[in-house]
Amino acid sequence: PPARFSPPPPPPAVAARQQKASAKVEPPSRAQLWRLALANGVPFVGFGFADNVIMILAGDAIDKSIGVTLGISTLAAAGFGNLLSDVVGIGAGDVIDRYSEKIIGKPKTKALSLEQLALRSCRIVKTWATIIGITVGCLLGMAPLLFLGEKKELYFTKEEMALYESALRPYGVSPDNFFAMMRKSNWRTLQPGEALVRAGESMDRIVLVATGSVDSYETAPDGSLKRLYRYRAKRDIARPQDSTVNSFQVPIRGCVIGGTALLDPSVRAQPYPSTALAAEPARVVEFSYGALRSAMDENPAIEAAILNVLYFDLVEGLRRRGQYDYAAKEAARKATGGPVAPRKLPTIMQEDVRVTMYELIMRVALADGVVHSAEREFLAKYQMENAITDEEHIASLAANGWTAAQWDAGVQEGQLEGGTAAIKSAIPDLLTQAGIKSRLTTDRGKDKK
Q1: Torsion angle of the four alpha carbons 93, 97, 99, 105, in this order, in degrees rounded to the nearest 10
Q2: Distance of CA 237 to the CA centre of its chain
Q3: In the sheet where 213-219 sits, what is the strand order?
Q4: What are phi and psi of 191, to 5 degrees?
Q5: Would you state the pLDDT for residue 415?
Q6: 3 state SS of 257
Q7: CA distance 76 to 52
Q8: What's the burial of 447, exposed, middle or buried (CB within 10 Å: 0-12/13-18/19+)?
Q9: Rounded CA separation 318/389 (Å)
Q10: In what helix (H) or strand (E) does residue 175 lie, and over which residues does it extend?
């Protein structure tokens, strides 16, 4: 029979190690375990400290510079800072190890053998020393947070700042909220006669006129365009209109185009009822409906401000319409040589509804629990033009749950029930009263039929 194969004996060195391993391993002493903990924990204090310090300082610098320019989030800036921290950490590893050895000093105990390092007690000490070291290092590395500002600086162009000061700041929009809005917008330049939207087209965006003006037209049966009203930038309302406008001028609807979609999203499916053409060189800010709606849902302050702009533009348009109608009658009288028509107050509504309308306007102004400067100025102008007495003013405050003292202070603790719902419910009726053609009033008319 063939001889059975037997493996050759191991070399003497290997046999000696196997015999040594089979013998009982001497457990490490307390001093050796302490030395092992320091050897593993101290370097990780340095690694954790360097990692967090570099990440925080680099992330903050990126957030305030490149982050503002590119519009990236704070978390993205922190990610780039962490990337830089890891790259630097690779190069700094040897330096940290050398300084750790100097801190620990030369060993005064016998070095642990490989067999001893493989023991469970040594593995536990190494693991916990590493965890404690990295934790202490990271906490110490957060020290720069004590000296860095809590918020990054906000940078606006002159154009953005002018838009903010004229259209949104008076209604309580903070710089932070405005900054978030502008990151979701698109600036566009319109030349005279350029169409922003034409009748019959879909309109799935909200447009804010920043400078210049845009006229809205309806199409007559003969195909010609009849001017209905003008959208004008808030900052330009006080500027004299151009010579193409009649002496009594056209009504100014406001500075927001397509805003009715924010009140009733279903109107987005309807064709836009009029044609909007630039009356002069204009700069507009366009928001996609989804982006602006998302910003309004995330931040009630933005929603309240946008709806306030829509509402007070409509009420101001009603007030001006009374002035325009009076100016038109005066122009006709002068042309025909007729008698002077007495101008009656109130200019935009009858006596029996002036207080009711004042209460409605005040309800919208007080909806967010704060009286902003633009709201106070508007109500004061309305009060003067419609002969609202102090008693009627105080009664209107009481009807909305406010006192005269709270009105003077400009703030009420808590918020009134309804909030922006009060504004949403009031705007459709104002559109109808003003005779403004919009997708919202068209839809309401169909419902009535």
Answers
A1: 170
A2: 26
A3: 195-197, 275-278, 213-219, 225-232, 252-254
A4: -90, 155
A5: 47
A6: strand
A7: 16
A8: exposed
A9: 21
A10: helix 175-182
